[in-house]
Amino acid sequence: MSDFEFDLFVIGAGSGGVRAARVSAGYGARVAVAEEYRVGGTCVIRGCVPKKMLVYGSHFAEDLEDAARFGWTVENAKFDWKTLRDNVLADVDRLNGLYQNTLDNNKVTTFHERATITGANEVTLASGRAVSAKYILVATGGWPVVPNIPGAEHGITSNEAFHLEDLPRRVVIAGGGYIANEFAGIFHALGSQVTIVNRSDQILRGYDEQIRDRLLQISLTKGIDFRFNAPFDRIEKRDDGCLVAHFKDGKPPIECDAVMFATGRTPNTDGLGLESAGVAINDKGAIVVDAHSRTNVKSIYAVGDVTDRVQLTPVAIREGHAFADTVFGGNPRTVDYACIPSAVFSNPPLAGVGLTESQARQQLGQIKVYTSDFRPMKNVLAGRQERSLYKMICDAATDRVVGLHMISPDAPEILQAAAIAVKAGLTKQAFDDTVALHPSMAEELVLLK
Fold first, then answer.
1. 35 and 134 share a domain?
2. Residue from 342, 344, 361 nearest 352 by CA
3. Same structural domain, 288 and 190
4. Is residue 337 part of a domain?
5. What is the residue-wise DSSP string for 133-164?
6. Among 12, 288, 341, 348, which is least packed by CB within 10 angstroms?
7. Last residue of some domain: 215, 232, 263?
């Protein structure tokens, strides 16, 4: 018998932690999980899942507007924020229950309280109970960054956005990343006046420049305002509840009803007691791990956003699964971080995989770029001028497709399948040899010239 109460103790019941716990238990390990909030983690409880539901809800604004061109008469259509909010939160409750059932069905012990590390093989629960484990896995995810400015307490983050009592009439969103652009699309479509404020001069750093420029152009056309090179100075709250965002360098202030900070996420390591076991963290506060997710302390591992490798839910899941296979399954595995597809559920959404044009030129030198700039059939009949853009980047020496990037309705759905081709190292000729599926937006991928 082991000298420890558990073979594995997981801190954090998000996507990575739950997968690691479930698979490890399947290998016969005695597993416990501690979660101080709700089982499911950022993605399920306060991230990509409820956000995508809000995206779906916001799409009806344009669909109802376009309906007349397709012969539909929709009278007295109106939107109620509380109905959407409450239905989304109800589904979050359902998913929370499913995740808990997964742990229970795999005989994983769940402690619904905070746990901190108090030794290389020990955690202490908020109730005061000390628990020993042969291995400890930290999977506590990330947390929204709130700028250190006067009045920051008057703002919200994406965490609180799902619980707003009322839809703000005017909202200022700080940041230029995917969270900022996604919520800008949601709030604007639902009727809010939206201003994105960014301290730099560009949005969606890291995405293909031509694609992100197209999103900026479309967003401006829709009526979303942007203010660049505008670092915040302070947030003022007036007696009537109105907020005023003040900026440095003499830029004019903006009056609004809500300020949302979407300025990135930081690894959630504060107060975990990592120093008590001597676990190394980097200058970003992330836990330092090797290719097998092991820290410098041989009994302690970490997966997901808390390690600041790739902050995506499917990556955390793969890391958690690889950990279980390696430590308890006798099958040492690492995660391949090359060619990970990603998407921004903006309006319209964009998606990409592989190298951007700029990255390809830097790494490969000679490349070939193929594009398709077109108006989707639905937009044509609806009378919308909004255009889609698909972009394929190839290594000129081998014809291998090294990057695919697109902005278009359903771009994430299309790219998931296309990403397989990029990951497999297929050539442009392989796309050309594939017969088009007509009429579809996806067919543009095999018709690129």
1. yes
2. 342
3. no
4. no
5. EEEEEE---EEE----STTGGG-EEHHHHTT-
6. 288
7. 263
Catalytic residue among 154, 246, 321, 438: 438
287 in the same domain as 204: no
pLDDT in tens, 153-186: 999 999 999 999 999 999 999 999 999 999 999 9
Q: Is the same domain home to 17 and 123?
A: yes
Last residue of a domain, one of 263, 287, 316: 263
Summarised one tens digit per residue, pLDDT across range 182-198 is 999 999 999 999 999 99
pLDDT higher than threshold 60 for residue 141: yes
Please say if the pLDDT value at position 1 is more than 60: no
Q: 364 and 287 in one domain?
A: no
Omega before residue 439 within 30° of 0, cis:
yes
CA distance 25 to 342: 30
Q: Is 438 noted as a catalytic residue in this protein?
A: yes
In a domain, 432, yes or no: yes
The pLDDT-based confidence of 250 (bands split at 50, 70, 90) is confident
Residues 132 and 24 reside in one and the same domain: yes
Apex 144 CA angle, 287 and 300, nearest 5: 20
Coil, strand or helix: which one is 416?
Answer: helix
Residue-wise pLDDT tens digits, 259-281: 999 999 999 999 999 998 999 99
Question: 250 and 230 in contact (C-beta within 8 Å)?
Answer: no
Q: What gap in Å lies between CA 13 and CA 22, rounded to an integer?
A: 11
Residue 271 lies in a domain: yes
Same domain, 221 and 306: no
Q: List the alpha helices (DSSP H) in 136-256.
A: 158-161, 178-189, 209-222
Residues 95 and 209 in one domain: no
For residue 344, which of 167, 184, 193 has the smallest C-alpha distance? 184
Q: Structure tokens of 374?
A: 């077109």
